[in-house]
Amino acid sequence: MTHLPDSGPLPGVHDLGYARLDTDRLERTGDAEVVYGAGKTPVQIVELLRTLHSTHGGRAALATRLSPEAQELVAVELPEAVVDPVGRTAVLGTVPAPSGTVAVVSAGTSDAPVAAEAATTAGVFGAGVELITDVGVAGLHRVLGVRERLAAADCLIVVAGMEGALPSVVGGLTGVPLVAVPTSVGYGASFGGVAALLGMLNSCAPGVTVVNIDNGFGAGVFAARVARRAAPIEVKEQ
Amino acid sequence: MTHLPDSGPLPGVHDLGYARLDTDRLERTGDAEVVYGAGKTPVQIVELLRTLHSTHGGRAALATRLSPEAQELVAVELPEAVVDPVGRTAVLGTVPAPSGTVAVVSAGTSDAPVAAEAATTAGVFGAGVELITDVGVAGLHRVLGVRERLAAADCLIVVAGMEGALPSVVGGLTGVPLVAVPTSVGYGASFGGVAALLGMLNSCAPGVTVVNIDNGFGAGVFAARVARRAAPIEVKEQ
Amino acid sequence: MTHLPDSGPLPGVHDLGYARLDTDRLERTGDAEVVYGAGKTPVQIVELLRTLHSTHGGRAALATRLSPEAQELVAVELPEAVVDPVGRTAVLGTVPAPSGTVAVVSAGTSDAPVAAEAATTAGVFGAGVELITDVGVAGLHRVLGVRERLAAADCLIVVAGMEGALPSVVGGLTGVPLVAVPTSVGYGASFGGVAALLGMLNSCAPGVTVVNIDNGFGAGVFAARVARRAAPIEVKEQ
Amino acid sequence: MTHLPDSGPLPGVHDLGYARLDTDRLERTGDAEVVYGAGKTPVQIVELLRTLHSTHGGRAALATRLSPEAQELVAVELPEAVVDPVGRTAVLGTVPAPSGTVAVVSAGTSDAPVAAEAATTAGVFGAGVELITDVGVAGLHRVLGVRERLAAADCLIVVAGMEGALPSVVGGLTGVPLVAVPTSVGYGASFGGVAALLGMLNSCAPGVTVVNIDNGFGAGVFAARVARRAAPIEVKEQ
Amino acid sequence: MTHLPDSGPLPGVHDLGYARLDTDRLERTGDAEVVYGAGKTPVQIVELLRTLHSTHGGRAALATRLSPEAQELVAVELPEAVVDPVGRTAVLGTVPAPSGTVAVVSAGTSDAPVAAEAATTAGVFGAGVELITDVGVAGLHRVLGVRERLAAADCLIVVAGMEGALPSVVGGLTGVPLVAVPTSVGYGASFGGVAALLGMLNSCAPGVTVVNIDNGFGAGVFAARVARRAAPIEVKEQ
Amino acid sequence: MTHLPDSGPLPGVHDLGYARLDTDRLERTGDAEVVYGAGKTPVQIVELLRTLHSTHGGRAALATRLSPEAQELVAVELPEAVVDPVGRTAVLGTVPAPSGTVAVVSAGTSDAPVAAEAATTAGVFGAGVELITDVGVAGLHRVLGVRERLAAADCLIVVAGMEGALPSVVGGLTGVPLVAVPTSVGYGASFGGVAALLGMLNSCAPGVTVVNIDNGFGAGVFAARVARRAAPIEVKEQ
Amino acid sequence: MTHLPDSGPLPGVHDLGYARLDTDRLERTGDAEVVYGAGKTPVQIVELLRTLHSTHGGRAALATRLSPEAQELVAVELPEAVVDPVGRTAVLGTVPAPSGTVAVVSAGTSDAPVAAEAATTAGVFGAGVELITDVGVAGLHRVLGVRERLAAADCLIVVAGMEGALPSVVGGLTGVPLVAVPTSVGYGASFGGVAALLGMLNSCAPGVTVVNIDNGFGAGVFAARVARRAAPIEVKEQ
Amino acid sequence: MTHLPDSGPLPGVHDLGYARLDTDRLERTGDAEVVYGAGKTPVQIVELLRTLHSTHGGRAALATRLSPEAQELVAVELPEAVVDPVGRTAVLGTVPAPSGTVAVVSAGTSDAPVAAEAATTAGVFGAGVELITDVGVAGLHRVLGVRERLAAADCLIVVAGMEGALPSVVGGLTGVPLVAVPTSVGYGASFGGVAALLGMLNSCAPGVTVVNIDNGFGAGVFAARVARRAAPIEVKEQ
Questions:
Q1: What are the residue boundaries of the PurE domain, all occurrences included (chains A, B, C, D, E, F, G, H) (predicted)?
Q2: Are residues E123 and E83 located together in one domain of the fold?
Q3: Does the pTM exceed 0.90?
């Protein structure tokens, strides 16, 4: 017995052999599929970006978790793409006009890749983005110094590793919806981000929600959806 | 040496001896403090509800996790309060006029208490609420049957125990921001809700965020904040 | 003291020095032993396949978990063998005429290796096999589209990583016996497949059984045993 | 804000207020819904059994996980029901004529409740059932003594706590499809059945599948589905 | 065979049959033994307190983890003892003149018992104690308001449950040696204090040490040892 | 369908309905079966002890894990039995003449029940027993004081909870075979004995083996088997 | 500040700079120290073996966990040493005349390295050793075939990975003291040997003790101590 | 959308692009920031050391967790720095005159890197340091031999891997404040230091505090703070 051929073509699917693009997703959820780069070859990523871009009418196509090799090939083959080596992302095509604001707040310099992935994703998914880095809780003056900028956002993404305390501190300062992203930054009993994840799930500040460890992409999608449907700030007089 | 007297009174705090109400929170975050009933006596809960109500100008005061005894005393002492035995909550005072809509979706009848806590909380925090129960993934026709109602909400709360698969299914059907609540419903290797929690954190549907096990209150606060700042649906022509 | 010589030859055992083939297993259980390739050298694997083949009268011999090097050597040394680079298997000899049908369903493209291993195994162990890939729960239309093919099988193998929700959805659509295989696909709090494993063990659909993480082989053996003893479908009028 | 009324009646659902029976399941999967007794009052259980029985044309209705109080009330209110205090089950109505055979094997006397639940479930779901108890691996002569009875079954359910070794031993003796059920029997580092669960997932015998800890019901459903579609033994000349 | 008589009397041990007091410990470590009340009867606790008191020359004897029944009997039988129902402690005899200062800081009202145990212990072990309660990180103004009192202590004990973020915030504000005590306050994925414990072990503020969950006693002993050997503040001009 | 009758009588088994005694075990392993009292009624325990005693020619029969009620009934019904309320055991019949010596060493008074169970078991299984209690590592003078008695034993059982450090200290002082028993004594992050179990498995002293948490019985059986086959000390001149 | 010089020389210690040999251990425990090779350079291992050998009067010196490079250098530099590439050990000097017998039993070919380490260690520590390999529980005929050889040993070492069931089966067949060694062989939910470790700790056969995962050395030391003090078999007439 | 520019310069922060130095920390806590070398390039580390040194008036600047490459570049570029290859640290500038004494005690040679990191850190943070190595509990004579040196310190740092028993033994010998550091030394069920961490958290010796696994730096900071505020020993006559 040999490897069986799979079931035939399906509507709403663009089959590339090694991957199938769910071209129906845009209609179903309002957002297009993206390229998750981990485990894919640079050549595949370039082709997937091109295909997503062309099958969605020039809409910005996003690729995440790109290896340095993939970033390099994308830069060569798709010179109009914007590659971010910090967040390991590439964007091909024009991002939407921003609607609402997502503020991405991170605790330490090691959290930068996850924060950048979240920021780029939120932008591609239609939100305006503000990045506020290096405001760890061991230096409270920095958090307090950006308090007004936090309160002005429509949705907050708070990125932290180690003990993951920043969302509790930020969540106590403002009532803006807050998505916490634990990162795998830490060592010993941080268990690859589990300590930060548990800290965020148990936050004493009400209204904090959490995504998977290092999942900047998921936080970006969620926050953009919140921000872009938010009414302009001056309307929110409750 | 005996038990030392504590530090003196503080601004923004209402001290009842056994608890201190953070009366400054409303100004800081836009939402008032609530009474977490677990570990408090019925008499304390009644007093706390009364105090919250009177110090916040008649605004609706919420108490959660009430024992049957506490529910009974609240009903007797505060007859104008609305007590919900399913969600184990009590609300004293008029809830705000609803702004935006939160849809609370639950998988099984055992998830009802958590779903009810989330629904009541979202209402007290200013959102309109729709409750859609018993739409477990083992009977997909029910989920598909409510698809339009899901898409019409400003924020979704999806409550499920056991394997916690419902948020993935719902998240694939719509692009509405979705907060997942794992419940401790299950047995054996469900580990008191850990299986559902992990399932939700690893959801293959993008844009799913998660709160702590059985934390209907936290989901309700978050979702209400999203919903009440959402622009009316007809405006969202992006 | 040096390394002691081991006990002498035993009946029902073919001793190759670095491994012993349990040649009695076929009689005991109706199925022959297979070559588990992990940790063995390409040369050993070739010899083991040849020996299994010759000591079992030309019956198809299966090797699993083959490294690229092992696949290459098998292709060169045993040109009549069928090597599957996706499932990392090799089969030497004629597979049995298929009896009954196993449908192997997988959630995402990353689950393909485990699904292929399961499919090849089920074929070698005597069942007909149908492969249905890329039907993740975040795009329900695909699952619903193959519903009749699922119902027509004698046993289902459902392969999924991340939250492992697919078995619950499939198990709610049909009463065919269902074996779930969690894969190590995922990141962060997926813990190398533990999230999917727990999700499957806690499935709300009755009649779902589970094998170890990435254990496509075990699922294939089990499902083939179920399928090949199933009576033809038209007889099952209960 | 008070507890919101839920969504209206749905097709394929029988609504009892505190629970909804999925009356469509029989058509969808070939098996009717059952009453999971944990967390339900004796009065509710009696009503649910009656309703299941009447809405399914007198087909046998099953209730599991019944407290002593529930067993007692069922015996009084539904005298025609068969109540099993060991397996904590009740069956109302005539079980189907058995088709195929499930052998339920258990390791120790403490595993009896889970084994009985599995046996009763398999019977209600249409299989013939044979119960073989107390064949722990520390006394191999007992396992070996029932070898022929094991080989004659169409599906095996093997129930064990502590180290959960019995499925490996049984699975090495026969090629009959085998579902292993870990039980929470044990102490110390058995962690409420986790040791047995891990043992079974890692069984060195191929073709062993596993269900959740103490989940005799799930194993019974699965095994009955396998057994009742098995061709009569004399046909299986492969 | 019956229960064997144990080995005979030993120097430095006062044998009461059901317990042995290590009367040599005072000389060895500078601190006397205490009565750990969990699992002991009220009568035993009274006798142990009396014995400790008399064998150590009237030095203050401490008992911890006292049940309400034990507290009551101690109050009746040893009227000169000071019983603290919050911290569940009793102290018989005069506490030493305080040397140095320990500040005990706690996050929420539910952390009060652990904070009180730490405070009483530190006092009995020779330190002056200041108690600062209810300064959770979700209301930063309170932490910032006590900043000077924190900086004036010789050692800090910071008690917190849930996500355990308070030590990171306090540790960023001052260089005083800081012992963090995680409490079992929380629910769901707090896992009985594990979330707080991990948070504290991974604190981003340098110089934070941790004791076991709810171990106010251990923190009190440690902090008192630090405080009482501290030079008066005016000397520390480094 | 009702609860099926089980398989018929078996050789080497004495069937009491609710339990089966493995009367063949004595011949197979040299040791008779014992009564594990947990989960059995007092009446059953009395009957099992009587039966074991009579079917094994008056040999001492052991029952472990007896509740206070079971201890009481045994004392009334079997006045010749020796009941130990500390170790929760009962012994009916004459213990064998002791052969070799087992020394049972325990760390704290809370470890006494497990140590007593180990000591009684070792005696019933044929060894001489010496009990050395309360030699925790926080008071090293006591361990050092019994060093010669430790070295004179044929096998050591070392019982400890909390951090489980005693086996490492004892194992560094002598070369006698050492079985470590972790106990569930402790709190917080002791996780019911897991901390002690891990400590013992990772002991830096070579030649330490471990049994399950609180498993004094298992340690007693093992140590007695070692001790009773040990040659008299004067022969061991190596 | 730079790296401080350490404390001076100590009696009973041979200082090599990068390691200190505890030359007093032989007198204290009857057994000499060994070289744990992991993390040491080949040159260091050669020097340590030489030093141990010369400081202990030619007694056999053992090194374990040797990398291929270390094995090679030992073979070149110490040609009289016996190097075992399977068990990754080297022995320099004459092993003692064997006293008593240790039987090392292993389940699969992948367990061979741990079994070989245990066997070599037991020999160096003074016992006679018999190696019985490849007797996994999935082929019971092999275990039963060596039953007499098992019963003739003074101590058993049973090595198994995956579900770790072999000690339960062997422990039910004989009353010889049994040390179980879990190995890290397995995948998925075997968690690097944890499944086997838990299985062995929860063995239903009484008298099974356990060592750390892959710790063949520890089992060898322990078993040799038991065997070499065992009286010749003909004396043990109990 | 491309990577957004971050927020502008902040007071008390020295921005180097890839990192920001918290230059305000010295004033806030009395101690300057340090360079955590993991994940930074050698060039960055050299620049950070230089910057810290120059912005803090020549005060000793510390870098930890340096790779061999980083150590080499520091030695070349900053020849006046003191590089310690054991502890993987570099110190640039004059350490403060020592105040008080920290004794760093370690169990085995493998714990040396963590002990050295702790010792260097304590020195840079202003304490006198004494290093006492290789005093594992399996050779108690060594611990007892240094008892007076332990009692003479102002704070103890006790470093141990495997079962982590050393702090319990040391803590029972002296009343000096004791910080325990678990190391990741061990294998199998040591779980990368978790066994040692749990052992230390559950120490039976009162007054033991713990830091994260391998966190020599944190222990050094804490201990130095205790030691440098300690009054000279002759004053401590309590």
A1: 100-232
A2: no
A3: yes
